[in-house]
Amino acid sequence: MKSLSFRTALVALLACGLIAACASPALADDAAATYKSKCTMCHGPDGKGTAVGTKMGAHDFASPEVKAETDAQLTDVITKGKGKMPAYSGKLKDTEIKDLVTYIRGLAK
Questions:
Q1: What's the CA gap between 99 and 34, in Å, rounded?
Q2: Statement: the pTM of the whole predicted model exceeds 0.85
C-alpha cells in the first residue's frame, strides 16, 4: 500500500513539473507578443529605442539608469506611465506587466 501512495505522489509531482516546464515558454511568448504590440514602436524590438521613441524620452533598457531600477520601479512605470509613456493600468493585467518586466530585463542583457 505504501508503494502505491509513493508511486501516485511521484506521478503527481512529475506531472506538475511537466506542466510548469511547458507553461514557461508560453509565458515568454505572451510577453514577447505584448511587448511587440505595445512597446516596440517606441522602445524598438531590441529595447534600444527607436528614433521616435528616443526623441520622446524612451530609454535604452541596457542603460545603467534602467538597469539600476528595481522590478517594482519598472512595474510602476508600466502601470502608471512616465513622461510621454502611457499608463497601462486597466489595459494590461498585473501578470502581463510582471511578465513584461521580466522580458525587458532579458532585452537589457
A1: 9
A2: no
